[in-house]
Amino acid sequence: MKIDLTETNSSKINAAMVQARRDIGTPAVGMVLTLVIVTDEENAYDALKSANDASHEHPSRIVVVIKRASRSPRSRRDARLDAEVRVGADAGSGETVVLRLHGELVDHAQSVVLPLLLPDAPVVVWWPDGAPTDLAGDPLGALGQRRITDTYSCEDPVGTLGSRAGAYAPGDTDLSWTRITPWRSMLAAALDQQALTVVSATVEGEGDNPSCELLAMWLADRLQVPVRRTLSAGPGLTAVRLATKDGDIVLNRADGGLATLCMPGQPDRNVALKRRDTAELLAEELRRLDPDNTYEASLKYGVSQLAAASSQPEAEAPAKAEAAAPAKAEPSKPAAKPAKKATAK
């Protein structure tokens, strides 16, 4: 069911949602969170489709905020709110409200969204594109326990990582980080299988791909070894190589679907490592509403520090790793036998 409301307000929108639920025979509200999507007309359809798909796992009230730029000074002074309410089959497993803000109302979006939030339920704010630098300081971002962005959609993805690190607040996350969850899980499992000492690492992928940079920073932060970033034709992240004293651990995904894991002393094996769509990434982020400390540590490691570490000559990497390792105690020499005391004859 769809209900169009022109020149309306939050009270009328709430009343329309209640009436729509009664009309379709589901007066109870069985949603677990409110997902606020801040986007524009160009990206609204794709973002809403991904959110509806994710709502099958996380039934939620989806509030889409679309800020309409006014062309003339007179129209910019006229505040107007248009809304579209969707309930039932048209709204996934929850309910959807599409808000179009005009004029001066664009600068006060939080006052429109606040009355539409589910009571006593967490709030997640998602910017599919055009996210502000300070997510927690944004009026809409301040409403959410979690704030999701996608650095991949920025004009300068790698440069934006530095801005995100400087303005990070607990609850911030990025879909570029979510994309490397299977890679991190696979590499961690590989290191758990064998007690190998990693002396250096290489991350290969497309240029200006923030997921590659985040994975490289995660490895550098967790392993404390130099990590070199190399380029490939893609798609996305294509390979990770961990150099150890006993041989290399290589996770190679050339086609974006199936990867090959090579480990010292073991046969090569194929592992599923497909590129996931936005709905799957969003559903993963909605599973946890607590701050992601691992993402924070990796983000704050910094692209500049990563570049400085990777610029060291390869010959210095093992030496650095060995210096960082605790020195092995030398075998103790047997103690000299005590001299026999002279006895008087």
TrEMBL record:
InterPro entries: G6PDH_assembly_OpcA, OpcA_G6PD_C, OpcA_G6PD_N. Residues 170-299 form the Glucose-6-phosphate dehydrogenase assembly protein OpcA C-terminal domain. Residues 51-164 form the Glucose-6-phosphate dehydrogenase assembly protein OpcA N-terminal domain. It comes from the Bacteria. Residues 306-345 are annotated as: Disordered. Residues 307-337 have a biased composition (Low complexity). This is Glucose-6-phosphate dehydrogenase assembly protein OpcA.
